[in-house]
Specification:
12 helices, TIM Barrel
Length: about 280
């Protein structure tokens, strides 16, 4: 039985809209995301391997699943591992209760990406979990040179088709000039590349990483090109931390951490609600 994440992605594909996959690492962030989904519609809660390790993977898994169960009511919410790097990462996340995993072998050779991803698919599918892979690089600040040769790192459409066919992945993260965090993106996303990927993979959900700062225009064009999910992390971090920093400035006399964390949670919820509305076209 496949999990909720793939159902949410396929519903978005059929409905010509997109959903958000929002990163968490603690209780407040998870509550903010789930409460936003309760108000606005489906989404995916996700954590990186480091996010799972931060709170102990089993503790984190139970935390997220309990918040979804007790706070979401009837909202459709998936639970996903973002950027798993190894087989051990995948096993740990599945044991913690995710219904979807990402294996990020994008920095490997194409042949090794296929080999590793196929191994992950076999294990995950056997455990009822769906798999997202990545082809092409979505750059990070500090990992790639800011003067990057975009043609050398964006997703190759023909290879994307081959990766899907040879591995059996359920979803694919693509690079068309998008970038993680504060890395300078390509001046104009490569829309023709995206259209070609969609033409070759009409049934595969396409995921856009590094989309925190994308506005209405780019979001709409990406959805028209076949993207059904946007990963959001940086905007969540900025909203959470800027609220805390503002409240703990000069003269701060707060002695109850719940007051600060509650304000930060509310800010993140507002940001997530806005993203869900934008992605769904509300």
């Amino acid at each position: 039985m496949r999990g909720k994440s793939i159902e949410i992605l396929r519903d978005a594909m059929r409905g010509d809209y997109a959903v958000g996959a929002f990163n968490t690492s603690n209780m407040e962030l998870t509550q903010a995301i789930v409460r936003a989904a309760k108000q606005e519609g489906p989404c995916i809660v996700q954590a990186t391997t480091n996010g799972f390790k931060y709170g102990n993977s089993q503790v984190m898994g139970r935390l997220v699943k309990n918040i979804i169960e007790f706070e979401s009511e009837s909202a459709k919410i998936g639970f996903h591992l973002d950027h798993g790097k190894s087989f051990d990462d995948i096993v740990s996340a599945i044991d913690a209760g995710v219904d979807s995993v990402m294996i990020d072998a994008s920095l490997m050779s194409f042949e090794d990406n296929i080999k590793v991803t196929k191994q992950i698919v076999e294990y995950a599918h056997k455990n009822g979990v769906t798999v997202q892979a990545e082809l092409g690089a979505v750059p990070y600040l500090g990992r790639e040179d800011q003067e990057i040769d975009w043609d050398s790192v964006m997703t190759n459409p023909v290879q994307a088709k081959e990766l899907v066919e040879k591995t059996g992945i359920d979803a694919l993260a693509v690079g068309i000039g998008n970038a993680h965090g504060f890395f300078k993106e390509r001046d104009v996303p490569d829309w023709e590349r995206l259209e070609e990927i969609r033409r070759l993979l009409p049934e595969t959900p396409l995921i856009m990483h590094g989309a925190s700062d994308w506005g209405d225009v780019n979001v709409k064009k990406a959805i028209e090109g076949g993207v059904c999910c946007f990963n959001i992390d940086t905007d969540i971090r900025v909203a959470f931390l800027s609220t805390i920093c503002h409240e703990t400035g000069n003269g701060c006399n707060v002695t109850d951490p719940r007051k600060l964390l509650g304000l930060a949670r509310d800010k993140v919820q507002s940001v997530v609600q806005g993203k869900i509305r934008m992605f769904s076209g509300k």
